[in-house]
Specification:
- The protein has one domain.
- The longest helix has 25 residues.
- The chain has three helices and no strands.
- It has 95 residues and is an all-alpha fold.
């Protein structure tokens, strides 16, 4: 009996982290507007921690599941990487 890989914490945790990072960027822009600050604030540091924290989780997922279930794991990895793109795009275009 196979369990869908999206039910594994290593599969959905990067998706949640990317969504939280995007929410932080959009929330900061909604509250303060597009501001070019000399020093990075707390929102920027939280964004960086969330995005960098995904790397080991995604690597763990890839190492564990690509051999066991390559098709499903590849789909989840594409989804995880695709979830990071809007967060990085928001930072690029809004700041």
């Amino acid at each position: 009996m196979s369990v869908p890989l999206l039910k594994q914490p290593a599969a959905w945790l990067p998706l949640v982290m990317s969504s939280a990072a995007l929410a932080i960027v959009l929330g900061h822009v909604a509250l303060y507007g597009v501001v070019h600050e000399a020093d990075e604030g707390a929102a920027a540091h939280l964004f960086q921690i969330l995005m960098a924290g995904q790397v080991p989780v995604i690597a763990y997922f890839a190492l564990k599941w690509l051999r066991r279930s390559p098709g499903q794991a590849a789909c989840v990895l594409v989804l995880q990487i695709a979830a990071t793109l809007p967060a990085f795009a928001a930072v690029y275009w809004l700041t």
